[in-house]
Design brief:
By secondary structure, this protein is an all-alpha fold. It has 14 helices and 2 strands. A two-stranded antiparallel sheet has the order 1-2. α7 packs across α8. The N and C termini lie close together (10 Å).
Length: 316
């Protein structure tokens, strides 16, 4: 297992190198820069050029990239010109709301998706199956921002059960923290639940008609034991992969939802950094979320090897 993990880690290094080059190149080619944002539109080209020279942005691309990459390995991801703090510190502060939102949205997705997917597979071809598939397709088709607006209007404005926007840290209390995250988590979780439901149904359908399931039923096992002990267990690797991909997309793709609900997470940090041309923050956030996504997929690969008996036998 250790050699397998090390191989997976080393195989990701070239990917991360290519990602770092692309990130730096894209930000490097964006028109304008920190100097333009800091000095304003009334600044003369000479003033902008002088400030760019002071900041080091007039140097060749390869020199700037080498300095930035060296700093990344040293733990120095640069300094935010507008937040007046190190980039890593800014990412650490803004990542906590994003992580809380992603975890809660994933819980919401699993609570709905796994039972619905199992029920649809077990009741294949019935009205229950048709209704479940239709609901999941509808959840996939509805844009996330539209769903967010609906939840805000219905639960926040009409019923006034939950706040429509804002954020409270966990230090203010668990319920106060969750109150501000329930609506955005619902809007994200419903979309993810639709995808996980369809994949859970598909994975279970591949298993429920296998010979060993028929054998288990012929031996007189209770249907619940067959469904949970045999079918779900053997479909778990596929479901686990889908859940890992879902969580990775939740961590890295909450920009629109965080903006709508005014949550100070990585999404809002990215948007404000783009507007202000805070290049080191842009590069740092994109690199950070890429690393998180890669690590989540690595964790899924490792868990996949642990729960799939066929891979365990192959390693033996």
């Amino acid at each position: 297992m250790l050699s397998y993990i090390l191989k997976r880690i080393f195989s990701l290094l070239p990917v991360m190198f290519v990602v770092s080059v692309v990130i730096f190149l894209v930000v490097y080619l964006i028109p304008g820069g920190p100097a333009t944002a800091m000095l304003g539109l009334e600044a003369s080209p000479q003033q902008i050029a002088e400030l760019n020279a002071q900041l080091g942005f007039d140097r060749p691309f390869l020199v700037q990239y080498a300095d930035w990459l060296t700093g990344v390995f040293r733990g120095d991801w640069g300094q935010s010109y507008f937040l007046d703090m190190p980039v890593l510190q800014a990412i650490g502060e803004y990542f906590i709301p994003t992580l809380s939102l992603a975890v809660l949205a994933q819980v919401v997705a699993l609570v709905f998706a796994i039972p619905m997917g199992m029920l649809a597979a077990y009741k294949r071809g019935t009205a229950v199956d048709l209704a479940t598939v239709s609901i999941s397709l509808l959840g996939t088709a509805i844009p996330g921002f539209l769903l967010s607006m609906f939840f805000m209007l219905f639960f926040g404005v009409h019923l006034q059960w939950l706040p429509v926007a804002g954020y409270e840290p966990l230090s203010r209390g668990l319920w106060e923290h969750l109150r501000y995250l329930i609506l955005p988590a619902l809007s994200l979780g419903v979309v993810q639940a639709a995808y996980i439901t369809r994949m859970t149904r598909s994975a279970l359908l591949d298993v429920l008609y296998k010979n060993y399931i028929r054998t288990a039923r012929a031996k007189g096992l209770r249907e619940s034991a067959v469904l949970f002990g045999q079918a779900l267990k053997n479909a778990a690797p596929t479901i686990l992969t889908v859940v890992g991909q879902s969580f990775g997309s939740l961590v890295t793709g909450t920009i629109v939802t965080e903006t709508i609900f005014n949550i100070p997470g990585l999404g809002m940090l990215t948007m404000s950094s783009i507007n202000q041309r805070d290049v080191f923050v842009i590069q740092g956030v994109v690199l950070f979320v890429t690393v998180i996504y890669v690590l989540v997929n690595l964790a899924v690969d490792i868990l996949y090897g642990l729960v799939d008996p066929r891979l365990q036998l192959g390693r033996q």
